[in-house]
Amino acid sequence: MRWSFLDRFQDFGLLVLRVGVGLVFLLIHGLPKLLDPASWARTGRAVGYLDIDFGHQAWGFLATLAMTAGAVCVILGWAHRPAALALTVTMGVASIWKFYPFGGWDAAAYPVTMTIVCLGLLFTGPGKLALKGK
User: Fold this and answer.
1) Is 34 helix (H, G, I), strand (E, B) or coil?
2) What are phi and psi of 35, to 5 degrees?
3) 105 band by pLDDT with thresholds 50, 70 and 90
4) If you average pLDDT over every residue of the chain, what do you get?
5) Which of 6, 13, 16, 51 is the most exposed place for a label (fewest CB within 10 A)?
6) Under DSSP, is residue 17 helix (H, G, I), strand (E, B) or coil?
7) CA-to-CA distance for 40 and 80, rounded, in angstroms?
8) How far is it between the farthest Cα atoms of the chain?
9) Could you tell me which residue, 73 or 104, shows the higher pLDDT?
10) Class of residue 118 by CB neighbours under 10 A (exposed 0-12, middle 13-18, buried 19+)
């Protein structure tokens, strides 16, 4: 059975996806880390698995910024693609970090999933229900 009647709701579906994923990043990942500067260095140490052994505090702050400001941009559909790219890279690094020291695919499943979702958002764009279009 084809559910073609739902085709006219594609932009609404993108809005639901943008708001849902954006709120997860903002409320669960971004804001708690933004309000705890001590966590920035812990978060930034993830780049060590890419042989980057300096500036963990700065890398952690950038990841936190991507998860807060990027989430707001994705939710609003404003600067959507740069924000989705920042979130894709951030979650890609988190995927590597979770995979190596913490036990393979079981530990990395969530960040890998979020990497794929953010990559999809990068390519689809924000849809028509956004502050700024593509």
Assistant:
1) helix
2) -80, -5
3) confident
4) 91
5) 51
6) helix
7) 24
8) 55
9) 73
10) buried
String of DSSP letters for 52-98: --S-HHHHHHHHHHHHHHHHHHHHHTSSHHHHHHHHHHHHHHHHHHH
For residue 63, with 0-12 CB atoms within 10 Å meaning exposed, 13-18 middle and 19 or more buried, which class applies? buried
pLDDT score of 35: 96
Cα–Cα nearest to 74, from 120, 118, 18: 18
**Tokens coding 42:** 């812990």
pLDDT, tens digit (0-9, with 9 covering 90-100), for 5-58: 888 999 999 999 999 999 999 999 999 999 999 999 988 988 888 888 899 999
| Contact yes or no for 9/126 (Cβ under 8 A) | no
pLDDT at 133 over 60: no
Handedness of CA 66, 72, 78, 81 (dihedral sign): positive
Instruction: Please give the Cα distance from 21 to 51 (Å, whole number).
Output: 29
Other residues' Cβ atoms within 10 Å of the Cβ of residue 123: 8
DSSP code at position 130: S
Tokens of 86: 């920042």
